[in-house]
Amino acid sequence: MKKPGIVVIHQRAFFRDCFVRCLEISYRSHGIFAFTNIFEWRNSTEQNALTPAVIVFFVDGSGSSSVADLQFLESSAADVPVVIMSDIDDTNYVMHALRNGARGYIPTSLPFNVAVEAVRLVEAGGTFVPVSSLELDRNKQPAASKTNELLTERQMMVVEALCQGMANKQIAYELGMSEHTVKVHLRHIMRKLKVRNRTEVAVLTKDFFEKTNEHGWLDSATGSHKDIQSS
Predict the structure, then answer these.
(1) Are 217 and 139 in contact (CB under 8 A)?
(2) Rounded distance, CA 6 to CA 9, Å?
(3) pLDDT tens readout for residues 72-83
């Protein structure tokens, strides 16, 4: 039976092999494939490696990762979830990666076990960005503060579920709607917030939800608090 694959791309053998070993221990039902660079990966003869469930790509803060590599990953992200792992923990760089299609961003300051579970979350359809990388720039805050004015009540519920890392199927189950309806809501939400993907939605609206009760949300029409279970 064909195993789903996870591709790890890193030019430094020591770090690459350590992370691959962690994945092999945690993902016994997967095939783990390691490559030095994208060229080596694309020339692999292993079919499971060429059509992976997730790609983990390491970006070196020294700038050694080529522009061509990053552009290739941006195009690949449309079909395969891409997780960027890097020693760059700059908010602007993280946002750039997310805007260009990355489904996860893992700073190398995180422990291995967290990084491994982040890959699992992305494979399941979620997104991963560490809290330290979600600090919004001041010019993002006005847009976040208008979230409640721009979105309908139902759209707010979808966004809150998305911010909790839920995949579309989970959101549909939790809110009692079809997966197709969730996708329609997300398209409208992205258009209203002027963002290009679900990760940007989560980053942009995080500040708003931090100001609401942990177990509820604000009614978009009245501003009053409601329990999410009551709708």
Answers:
(1) no
(2) 10
(3) 776 766 678 889
Q: Are residues 18 and 49 in the same domain?
A: yes
Q: Which residues of 70-103 are buried (b: 16+ CB within 10 A; e: fewer)?
A: bebbeebbeebbbbbbbebbeeebbbebbebbbb
Query: What DSSP element (H or E) covers 107?
Result: strand 104-107
What's at 20, amino acid-wise? Answer: V
Please indicate, yes or no, whether residues 95 and 171 belong to a single structural domain of this protein: no
The residue ranking higher by pLDDT, 128 or 216, is 128
Task: Please name every residue paired with 226 in a beta bridge, in sequence order, or none if there are none.
Answer: 217
How far is it, in rounded angstroms, from Cα 203 to Cα 197?
10
Cα 64 to Cα 68, 94, 121, 126, 144: the distances in Å are: 11, 17, 28, 29, 35
Residue-range definition of the domain harbouring residue 224: 138-230
Q: Are residues 125 and 70 in the same domain?
A: yes
User: How crowded is residue 208: how many other Cβ atoms within 10 Å of its Cβ?
Assistant: 22
CATH number at residue 154: 1.10.10.10
Q: What is the pLDDT of residues 42-96, one digit of tens each?
A: 888 888 888 889 999 988 766 555 556 666 776 766 678 889 988 887 777 787 7
133 falls in which pLDDT band (50, 70, 90)? low
Count of structural domains within the chain: 2
